[in-house]
Amino acid sequence: MNHIFTTRPELHADNVNRAALIRAAPGRLAKPDGSTEPAVIIFSGRGLQYALNQAQAYRLADSIANALESHRKP
Question: What is the value of pTM for the model shown?
Answer without folding.
Answer: 0.82
